[in-house]
Design a protein that fits this description.
The protein is an alpha+beta fold. It has a single domain, classed as Inorganic Pyrophosphatase (Alpha-Beta Complex), CATH 3.90.80. The chain contains three helices and ten strands, in the order H-E-E-E-E-E-E-E-E-H-E-H-E. The protein has helices at about 5, 105-125, 140-145; strands at about 10-20, 25, 35, 45-50, 60-65, 75-85, 90, 95, 135-140, 150. The strands form two sheets. Strands 1-4-5-8-6 form a five-stranded mixed beta barrel. A two-stranded antiparallel sheet has the order 2-3. The termini are far apart. About 30% of the residues are buried.
Amino acid sequence: MDKTTIHNDIPMVEVIIEIPKGSFIKRGSSGQLDFVSPVPCPFNYGSIPAYIGLDGDLLDAVVLGPRLSPGTRVMVFAREGIGMIDHGLRDDKLICSDSPIPLHKKRLILLFFLAYAKAKSLINLLKGLKGQNHCEGWLEANICLARATPRDQINIPPVSKPLN
């Protein structure tokens, strides 16, 4: 039995890793430097090339587990979501893992995004971007996917090169 048979009610997505676990450098899905963090990213961070989020960028995703190199493509279960607002735009994050997420890890992930929203407020202020920044908390993964637009519906070419 493969993973999709075992977990047929949990969506599986392809994620391209942009920021490996432990990295201080935050890049966007285009590969352009966004900012340098004073603390390392506690998980692999990337995007889902099949969906465009409501902020107009690829839908963001966190991949729990061991460190993955930038440009790595993984098929993983979208277990949960975090609702975020970044400079006034909805910027949901899918939280992906091959196994269920323990409660203590869910608390740490939420704490990270609460702090991240505060840090992004300062970064956006320095960049001259306006609008609110905050973390709305946990969502079902299917809600994040339903808010996003499937990329094939808007005729954008697929992401084909690694993001370094």
